[in-house]
Design goal:
- The structure holds two protein chains of two kinds.
- Chain A is elongated, with a radius of gyration of 26 Å.
- Chain A has a domain of 100 residues: Nucleotidyltransferase, domain 5.
- By secondary structure, chain A is α/β, with parallel strands linked by helices.
- In chain B, strand 3 and strand 4 form a beta hairpin.
- Chain B has four helices and six strands, in the order αββββαβααβ.
- By secondary structure, chain B is of the alpha/beta class.
- Chain B has a five-stranded mixed beta sheet, with helices on one face.
- Chain B has a domain of 120 residues.
- Classes of the chains: A alpha/beta, B alpha/beta.
- The interface between A and B is large, with 54 and 43 residues.
Chain lengths: 153, 183
């Protein structure tokens, strides 16, 4: 007469975890694909200013970066320096750098190439103006002042 | 005798998840998901000839100067940065009402001049305010005409509307050649 089972006999079955590695691997691959390893060694400090009207730069492949800021290495003083790729550079190197970067791209993309200027807050406009003039000389007319987005209110 | 092949013991896959987690955490930590943000600027092309004489269009130009001490001068009068946006919006939407400001929005120009000693931070703040002024008047106009802010117009389906707003309030924000304004 086994009509009634013993009370409380409903043991929860063990959760099947065999799919767990699959899920984790899926996440893993997502992050592996989305990760971009830092390819630049930052030599200058760039604490960028804040602004409300910033726009997203969608295509990362269409960006050239110019960094301006005081050197991280305190022994080099506090005068803002320009960094292109991995090394310090002077204003005169910008034309060559932009031309070189653009030559690696598809010709159709060149009019859409944007220069992202990451400059520290303490930088004076003199150096920025010089950079702008150099960019005009190589016809790289799309510029973006890199800034952190803050909300309006 | 049967075959001498030994049975390959089953590989214990229990720790697979642990290894995968370890890798996952590593990639989570190293990932930087920052989308580059910035204020978009269109630089004028380099030209040899001097800019056209702007004497007769003086009224159309809102002059904004920033000196080496990060002080603001708008149309010859000192101004704090909080009031700059409103002033620029007044200039753009004046339509001839105030004799010192622009006659029509399509001709209105904002000219931004800075000293070599101006700080980049201040410059970006001012540039941001002026961009905000343009965005605000465009939003307002778009709201009146189409019942929708300019930023919400879809670039695909409402191309004509976007064009109309852009023609009504063209973004003529000029950054002048470097000058020395002194202290």
């Amino acid at each position: 007469m086994a009509k009634f089972k013993k009370d409380g006999g409903r043991a929860t079955p063990a959760i099947n975890t065999s799919a767990l590695p699959d899920i984790v691997f899926m996440l893993l691959f997502f992050f592996m694909v989305a990760t971009k390893m830092r390819d630049r060694d930052m030599k200058v400090k760039t604490a960028i200013p804040q602004a409300t009207e910033v726009e997203k730069l969608v295509k990362k492949s269409r960006l050239n970066y110019i960094f301006v800021g005081p050197p991280k290495d305190g022994a080099l003083g506090t005068t803002p320096r320009i960094q292109l790729d991995d090394a310090f550079a002077s204003v005169d190197d910008i034309q060559q750098y932009i031309t070189l970067q653009n030559s690696k791209k598809d010709e159709k993309e060149i009019p859409f190439m944007t220069t992202s200027l990451k400059a520290d807050k303490v930088v004076k406009m003199g150096i920025v103006t010089d950079i702008k003039q150099e960019l005009r000389k190589v016809n790289a007319l799309k510029l973006s002042y890199s800034a952190l987005k803050v909300s309006d209110e | 005798m049967g075959s001498r092949r030994r049975d390959i013991p089953e590989i214990n896959a229990g720790s697979m998840a642990d290894i995968a987690f370890l890798l996952l955490v590593f990639f989570l930590v190293t990932t930087t998901m920052d989308v580059p943000n910035g204020l978009q600027v269109a630089l004028p092309p380099m030209s040899e000839e001097p800019p056209p004489d702007s004497k007769q269009r003086k009224r159309e130009v809102l002059e904004v100067l920033i000196n080496a001490g990060d002080q603001l001068l708008v149309e010859g009068a000192p101004m704090s940065i909080d009031r700059l946006r409103q002033k620029a919006m007044d200039h753009l939407t004046n339509e001839g009402a105030d004799p010192t400001l622009s006659t029509t929005s399509t001709k209105a120009v904002v000219s931004l001049k800075n000293d070599r000693g101006t700080s980049y931070d201040m410059y970006v703040q001012v540039y941001n305010e002026l961009t905000a002024a343009y965005n605000d008047v465009r939003d307002e106009y778009s709201m009146r005409e189409f019942g929708k802010p300019y930023t919400k117009l879809s670039p695909g389906r409402e191309k004509e509307k976007i064009k109309q707003v852009k023609e009504k309030y063209p973004k003529k924000l000029s950054e002048a050649e470097p000058v020395s304004l002194g202290k």
